[in-house]
Every structure is written in C-alpha cells, then in structure tokens.
Amino acid sequence: MLLSERKNIIIGDQCLFSHTIWFRNADPHLIYDNITNKRINPTQSIYIGDHVWVGQEVAFLIKSFVTSGSIIGTKSVVTKLCYSNTINAGNPIKQVKENISWRGECA
Fold first, then answer.
1. What pLDDT sits at residue 33?
2. Cα–chain-centroid distance for residue 65?
3. Segment 33-56 mean pLDDT
C-alpha cells in the first residue's frame, strides 16, 4: 500500500483478496497544466465496498471505487468505478458481466 497526501484506502466487510495486491492512491510525480498552472493528477482515496472478491496481482490506482458484491479479475488495473454485482477485468478494467453474486467456498 502506497498512501499519499492524507488520503485513505477504505475496505468494506467480508472481502476476499488473493495475493500481490497493489494500492496506490497517487501518481509518483505531480503533473500540471501549462496554461492554468493547476495540478491535473490529484491524489484520491480508494474505496472498496462490502463482499468484493479480488483476484491475484490486481492494482488499485487513483479513482478506484469498487462497489459491493463485485469481482475484480486477476491482473486487472482498477482506475474507475466498478458497479455492484458485476465482474470486471483487464487493463484498463472493463465490466464483463453484470447481475452476478458469489460465495466464498472453494471448488
């Protein structure tokens, strides 16, 4: 977990995480618009809802917001909102299935 600028990583209840998960809520360097001189890559908190299943080697970056009941596929890069009860995967992440539910028992 790499936290910056007093922002948070908030994780809900009953989540299931595999191994080698990355959390990074900021870019390593500041980026500015040359015309306005305003920073364009602000640090932001990461939110993960209740009952979220996260596959191995997933990276949660700036703007990650995963709502309850979701599944995040292996080696995905999360940088946006993932809706409840959906399967999301890839780099960049995209929704691949909706209206799902999951249970924590192993096959």
1. 98
2. 6
3. 97
